[in-house]
Amino acid sequence: MFTRRPLILAAIAAAASLATVAVQAQSTFPAKPVKLVIAFPAGGPTDITMRQLAENASKILGQPVVVENKPGAGGSLPAQTLQAAQPDGYTIGQIPLGVFRLPYTTKINWDPVKDISYVINVTGYAFGIVVPTDSPLKTWKDFVAYAKANPGKLTYGSTGTLTSPHLTTELIAQQSGIELQHVPYKGSADLMLAVLSGQLMAAADSTGFAPQVEAGKLRVLNTWGDKRLAKFPDAPTLKELGLDIVQNSPFGIGAPKGTPPEVVKKLHDAFKQAMEEPSYVAALGRYDMLPNYMSTADYGKFAQTTYAKEKALIEKLGLAKPQ
User: Fold this and answer.
1) Which of 166, 189, 223 is the last residue of a domain?
2) pLDDT per residue over 73-85, tens digit each?
3) Is the pLDDT confidence value at 289 over 80?
4) Measured between alpha carbons, how far is 232 from 294 in angstroms, rounded to an integer?
């Protein structure tokens, strides 16, 4: 009995020492650069706006926020990266809507709601469907008529299988009574090259297509928000076209499960302040995107409700994996 006492005391001392180190680490966070993993390639709207946000946050945190691009897998790679990262706040990631669909379509060993510390929601996308300017499909009515006359022959691209552009276009097709042929790409830059070169008849994307539309190379057939976009006032919304669909795909930043609340708060506060900088608002404005702030608590609740909604969408489209 007495021989165990020194061991117990040593264990208590070690635990106390670790707790002290943890508290010190939290109070000095960040003491080195923070890595922000984003889900899409360099040069697209996500990359450009998130790099501006990271630059703003770097000044507030006093340490660089370094962006790492990890495209593919329906936008879920940053969330997967968080599963293997230390819960210390030095690795954080973008959480696109596709993350909440993953368990319904792919076998994974982690839970998108329980296994991510939700920090802050920052914005959402503006979406639409575009065609080349010289396309015979001048309006959405033309698009639907061609698709009905040629089932499965109208090709469209998106930024990846099971992303919001892909699934929303499939829902649009379902409600319109048409069948389309989907071709996935890793990001907006590759997708735009494909539609401009004639490899595709159309593209469903966030407003990364804006520069090509403004240059007269692409035409917008519809947009997916509640209201028409200021940049494309002539393009009708899906609601105006008789489709009961609105999609703006909010996204924000998450950290590994178990990240200390004090570290999450520091990250939240820094990115909230970074969102309010005119440079970030201007970067979003290039793509008709707007700041869409959710606090840590609200973002966590959003994750829970979205997880349930995405299950319903996946099942409606018949894309759920066999149980």
Assistant:
1) 223
2) 889 999 999 999 9
3) yes
4) 27
Q: The domain containing residue 260 runs over which residues?
A: 33-124+249-316
Asked if residue 205 and residue 141 are part of one domain, the reply reads yes
* Predicted local confidence at residue 4, as pLDDT: 56
Asked if 165 contacts 205 with a C-beta cutoff of 8 angstroms, the reply is yes
Could you tell me the sign of the dihedral formed by the alpha carbons of 175, 176, 178, 180, in that order?
negative
Q: How high is the pLDDT of residue 202?
A: 98
Measured distance CA(313)–CA(318) in Å, rounded: 9
pLDDT at 252 over 50: yes
Q: Find where tokens 């920090």 sit.
A: 119
Q: What is the CATH number of the domain that holds 168?
A: 3.40.190.10
The phi and psi torsions of 276 (rounded to 5 degrees) equal: -85, -5
pLDDT attached to residue 310: 92
Average pLDDT over residues 210-225: 96
Mean pLDDT of the chain: 92
CATH code of the domain covering residue 73? 3.40.190.150
Closest CA to 58 of 274, 283, 260: 274
- Domain shared by 44 and 108, yes or no: yes
pLDDT tens digits for range 5-22:
555 555 565 554 444 444
